[in-house]
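hey m, so remember when u said the tokens were messed up on ur end? i reran from scratch. heres the input so u can diff it against urs
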Amino acid sequence: MVPELRLFFAQGAILNRCCSAIDGVCLRRVNPLILLLLICIGISSIAYSADCCAPKGIFPSDPSSMWQQINGFINLVSIQSIQGKICGILLPEENYLIAGSVMGAGYQPLQSRIFDRIILVVSDKSLGTGAYIPKAERFVTSIGVTSSDEIFANKIRNEIDGISLTDACPPECFWYQLGFLQCLFGSHPILPLILGDIGLVDIESITTRLAEIAGDDRVIVIGVSNLASGNDLIELSCRDRRIIRSLTELDYRNLWGDTHSDAVELSAIESAVFTAALAKKLGANKGKVLKHIVTSGLLIHKHIGMAAIAWHGECEKANSTNRRAQISPAEGYQLWELAAAVIVRRQNIDFPRKLHGVSSGVFISVSRGDTIIAQTGDLFTTMSLAQAVKKFATLLVSANPMGRFYSKNLRGAKLSICIADPVDGISEPTSDMGVYVRLGEKIGVLLPGEGADIKPKRRMELACLRAGIPTKNLSVSGADVHFFTVRVFSGMLPLE
């Protein structure tokens, strides 16, 4: 792995030890004068910069364990497609043990997306009246370090009344969301926004100005709140349905009124209403419930409703923001490093920012000798190239529960990343082209070189057979048939 790709995880490990030292875990007896000097230096440095660290005990200390846990939640449910610009999501504020599956369902559609700004909205009424941005420049978990989006934060504070700085670190519910964001987006900066006791008029004013300041930036706002709670399950379900109806219809004013008339309740009404209002002003026109549960048991003393809701707007054309471009061999092998890290160590690593804007089809395979162990990918995606490699590598691992990717079974296995480009204007493939057949959700793929010694028509039939598509008459079946070329980056998987 290249040095810059190790940096994200290394920073997390180092700063976690620093956080432990602050709590007294790593301190030793020192000369009182030296201790006084260190305290003075610490106070001085805090005046200029501070790191907020995840509270102890809420995450595994091993980055790979935490990364694997979060990716397990993301891939726990079947993929839910949202055809449009995602502007906001609402997620529960509980820990992973209680709400991990709901959070995973909420973050899953973001895997294929690119955002310029990420706003994370939580509530903490202990801060008093208003909205707050933490002074901390960095937020540290065992996975790594996420920086505050200081440029965006300064612009907001200069142009919007009612937003102040606070010395306080965000509440615990912030950290559960941060773990998912770090797994999905690496070290991408975020803007934490903590809401105190704030009214609807101020929410309307702040969200209107925020949307104006964002302009053409691709912004995602993430809000955190549980739904209803109580001991009566039937009454709670009725309240949840009413809340969800208001949220999916983006009728946040009605939700605010219902809450203050005691018709419904949420654990953080300010966060939910703020997120829905901002999502609507960013272009969302509808909401979709990705998962809804009512949980109870030994871990909690009453029923709690939780949901993952995504707000989205009009559809975007596939690859409309991306550009097709040749990638260098060095960039190709950086993508290979990304896939290898996912498969071998279950870890996410940063990828070159240039590859955010490069789009192409991707196929990933793991083989040993002439035998393909597993293969996945697609010729057409709405993802950037790096996001596609990461997603398909994750699917490759999660789709193999029989343990074929355990390190002891990787000896002699080869990982291949195929960057695929469609070829138009021909009726039959040459032997150096791949075949891609799709009918509904069924997809059959023959990579270049597979079946190279048989006739083109027979190769197309083989692709159909792999997908379970009738082969007698492709035109009658309504299947889409495409041909493509690939650039391959391959190497032996490292043994950890």
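this time it looks ok to me. The first strand starts at residue 51 and ends at 53. if urs says something different then somethings off w ur setup not the seq
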